[in-house]
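re: that chain from earlier
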Amino acid sequence: MTLPFPFIDVDEESGFVQKLEKVDGKNYIKTISADLQANTDFNQTLQNDGSNGYGKSRDLKHVASVPLHMIEFWKKVHGVDVFNKDHEKAFLRLLEAPEFRHFRTDNGKPI
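^ sequence. v structure.
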């Protein structure tokens, strides 16, 4: 089967878009982008609900909701692997950075 070019794959739920373009006979360019609006709206709702990220029992605090494609971006660009416990401080610094504030679900005080 031959793919039509450019080939575009859209995940409606996550807003994740992958585009594959043919440059010449053997080279391609892959572009990945995402619409983060749904995630940003969800996080904003949680920031404003008055719970400051805590559930009813206050045992756990929900601090952030970060889409997987941003986790991949942070690993590639900043070298921070959110699944590596040795990177916890670096991950928390990213969450406190103004440019990533919209991923926080609490009131944004330092963690």
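The mean pLDDT is 84.
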